[in-house]
Design goal:
alpha/beta; 8-stranded mixed beta sheet
Length: about 575
């Protein structure tokens, strides 16, 4: 986390009131207000109430998909004035318990948070209210400017007539900009394309990792590697200093490793030594900052709801970086790689801009065939949450560990998102897929792929997804035109025990690729035996380590691709020092 937030557990004064302004109440409810010192203008946003039995951290950091999640309830507020009370009661939808009436009586730590919305007047003519990123990477519980209350311990009985008053008494502070170093630079540019779409200034940024000898070799021009993934505050996994000997070791539950934080620091320092050492290819690596009002990144494609991010990245940001940092600036010298979201982006950008990039290395990509949208076939299934049956409800799994143990269902994951935001505004995974892939609805928000409460799939929206964002289908449909441009460029890697079942879509895509003709795709598809999410194609190392070595795994592969594919007369010398 960027901020270290400290707070005190304070006793709560509970008010039971009945007045003309506040009618009598015969069940549990919460009233929330904020003082005028935070805003003289009315506020819009999502008001989230959280209850927890765990005092180890604030409730706002305890809402998750897994079994340790605490309780959350949410309502939209529009034109909410200072000192005005907003109420949440047993009619408000919650997660994981849908109604407050079902909460067991007892003592809870209670906290409320307002995730602020901004009004956008889109080029389409629609007006929408969305949370603008404030430099945190679209995290509702850490976004600067959001208001929240100090957690308080309360005795709750859902069966009694009880009104609990909460005041939002704190505001999340701004995030300082990261500092440049010799190797890492941070840039930001206004995008004309995105500004026109959103109706207000919009920016793209990037974290740049410069090669060893950049300043000493002003004549050199470099190939460019785009490392796609989630919002990066700065360039991660690169550490000039040795590991901190005083760092208290933590424990990774996922990998069952003691001191995983120390392992991460050691790997980051090892990469620094490799990057600056003799013989390693001298290239530029960038991580893009394209956080937006729907998510921590844009998926790097053009979208009816997010705007022309694909064009903005490919035709505005990348040329800007290449000019500023002496990139070669030609398609044969640009490469894409990444994992998970970044894996999907790498493959999608390669397909949609086949002449602008020379290869993609896509690890554990988000679903690239919507017949396996994790565990849902969007074209044949009618419900995303349950298997079809006349007599029983079998929930579809959403997350598993490497032994196949389920920790969340698709219904769990989507209901959490619904509490965090209606109209696809949660800033979470399923909502961003919908925002990127769906057409805009009549209200200006993304048209739902399925009913968020029930899971009923909309086949018309699924058909739109298929034609525009089902990457396997698009390759198969357009192979006559795309095939010659993609020959040798597609490389896919996935663990066969991916936590989100992403290997299912990779398998379907592999079946198509291995049967391509005129030309044969001449790429690579590989699977990690028993490997979980983020496996990058390394058959020798455990997943806990390989996931930290994307750069050292793919840069040498990129060098080999350059050797075999660079056009006659290409600059293969100035950057090989």
């Amino acid at each position: 986390m960027i901020h270290s937030l400290k707070y005190l557990w304070l006793p709560l004064l509970i008010f039971f009131s009945c007045s003309p302004e506040q009618p009598a109440n015969d069940s549990l409810r919460f009233s929330v207000s904020y003082p005028s010192q935070f805003s003289e203008e009315p506020l819009d946003g999502r008001l989230i109430l959280m209850l927890s039995v765990d005092s180890t951290s604030e409730p706002r950091f305890q809402i998750s998909d897994g079994p340790d999640t605490q309780l959350a309830y949410g309502i939209d507020v529009d034109g909410w004035k200072a000192e005005e009370k907003a109420y949440l009661n047993d009619t408000v939808f919650g997660y994981p318990m849908a109604s407050m009436a079902d909460i067991p009586a007892g003592e809870y730590y209670v906290q409320a948070l307002l995730h602020k919305y901004e009004t956008f007047h889109l080029a389409s003519g629609h007006t929408v209210k969305l949370p603008m990123d404030q430099g945190e990477g679209q995290q509702w519980n850490q976004s600067p400017g959001n208001l929240y209350s100090t957690p308080v311990k309360v005795s709750i009985d859902p069966k009694g007539a009880q009104t609990i008053d909460i005041e939002l008494d704190q505001e999340i502070p701004p995030i300082p900009a990261p500092e440049d170093t010799r190797y890492i630079k941070h840039i930001k540019m206004k995008s004309d394309l995105l500004t026109e779409f959103w109706g207000r200034p919009m920016y793209l940024g990037a974290n740049i990792l410069l090669p060893e000898g950049f300043e000493e070799h002003p004549e050199a021009k470099y190939p460019l590697c785009i490392f796609h993934g989630h919002f990066p505050y700065t360039f991660e996994g690169f550490r000039e200093e040795p590991p901190d000997p005083d760092l208290p070791p933590d424990y990774s539950e996922r990998f069952q490793l003691e001191g995983y934080n120390r392992i991460q620091q050691q790997e980051a320092h090892n990469f620094y030594k490799t990057w600056t050492g003799p013989g390693f290819p001298r290239m530029i690596i960038i991580e893009i900052q394209h956080q937006n009002p729907y998510y921590d990144d844009s998926y790097a494609v053009n979208s009816a709801n997010l705007g022309p991010y694909g064009d903005a990245i490919t035709h505005e940001l990348i040329p800007f970086i290449e000019e500023k940092f002496r990139g070669i600036g030609e398609g044969w010298a640009r490469f894409l790689y990444g994992g998970s979201t970044g894996g999907w982006e790498a493959l999608a950008a390669q397909l949609m801009y086949p002449d602008e990039y020379n290869a993609c290395f896509a690890a554990c990509p988000d679903p690239i065939d919507f017949r396996a949208f994790t565990v849902v076939n969007l074209y044949e299934d009618t419900n995303a949450y349950y298997l079809p049956s006349k007599f029983k409800k079998t929930p579809r799994p959403g997350h598993r560990d490497g032994r196949g143990h389920i920790s969340a269902t698709l219904e769990d994951m989507n209901h959490r998102e619904l509490v965090l935001g209606t109209h696809g505004r949660s800033g979470q995974q399923w909502d961003i897929w919908q925002a990127v892939y769906s057409p805009a609805g009549e209200d200006g928000y993304p048209k739902p792929i399925w009913d968020k409460r029930t899971g009923t799939i909309d086949p018309e929206v699924a058909a739109y997804w298929k034609e525009n964002y089902d990457l396997r289908y698009m390759m198969e449909r357009d192979w006559d035109q795309l095939g010659p441009k993609l020959k040798g460029k597609i490389h896919l890697y996935c663990g066969d025990m991916d936590n989100y079942y992403l290997n299912n879509a990779v398998k379907l895509t592999e079946a198509f690729l291995e049967n391509t003709e005129n030309p044969y795709y001449e790429g690579e598809v590989a699977y990690g035996d028993g490997a979980e999410h983020c496996w990058n194609g390394d058959p020798e190392l455990p997943n806990a380590i390989s996931r930290l070595r994307y750069n050292t795994m793919y840069v040498p592969k990129i060098l080999e691709r350059i050797k075999e594919s660079a056009p006659k007369g290409a600059d293969l010398a100035s950057w090989r020092y």
